[in-house]
Amino acid sequence: MNARREQEPETGRGLRIARVLWLAGYVLALCAVLVAAVQIDPPSRKNRFADAEASIVIGLVAGAVAVVLLVLLQMPPRLRPRTLPAAALSGWLIWALAAGLTGYRVLVRAGDARGFSDVMLEPLLGLQVVQLVLLGLLAGRLERRRRGALRDGDISARI
Question: In whole angstroms, how far apart are CA 114 and each of 34, 53, 55, 121, 142?
Fold first, then answer.
């Protein structure tokens, strides 16, 4: 443990606070992307009693929060190599889930039993696309940093 501490350069308190705040914002952004995507999922038991208008409002609010957070988080601080695999992988997993649900809703539009209209879906689908682009950029940036840490010989950056 002391050998690992000696290898890492001394980090200031400000960098540690920046890391914690960035990671907390990242987790909140991932949750907001997920909440926005789930609001437009296919009809099932879990959303049988969900009102279409309420789902759109929840999705729009969560989507707006996600976009703001993802824009603010585009330049992450210098994260520890052992943090990078979890951050990159969780970003890509949430991206894949949100892309799948958005793709479903783009194909089906309002043609299922959820009660959406095309007019209701337009702003939310546009917001979903913006979220997917921002999350993909951020997850890609984290993945490049992880691979760079692996090239530098840090084995803690392995998935």
Answer: 18, 10, 10, 12, 36
Going by the DSSP 8-state scheme, the letter that residue 12 receives in this structure is: -
Measured in whole angstroms, the distance separating CA 139 from the mean position of its chain's CA atoms is 8
Gap between the terminal Cα atoms of the chain: 21
pLDDT on residue 11: 62
Spatial separation of the C-alpha atoms in residues 114 and 43, rounded to whole Å: 6
| Segment 92-114, tens digit of pLDDT | 999 999 999 999 989 988 887 78
Given a cut of 50, whether residue 141 has pLDDT beyond it is: yes
Distance CA(46)–CA(64), nearest Å, equals 24
| Best CA proximity match to 86, nearest among 157, 8, 4 | 157
Tokens of 28: 């909140």
- Residues 69 and 134 sit within 8 Å (Cβ to Cβ): no
Question: What tens digit of pLDDT does each residue of 25-77 get?
Answer: 999 999 999 999 999 888 877 777 778 888 999 999 999 999 999 999 999 89
What's the pTM?
Answer: 0.85
Instruction: Locate the domains of the chain by residue range.
Output: 2-157
Q: What percent of the chain has pLDDT over 90?
A: 55
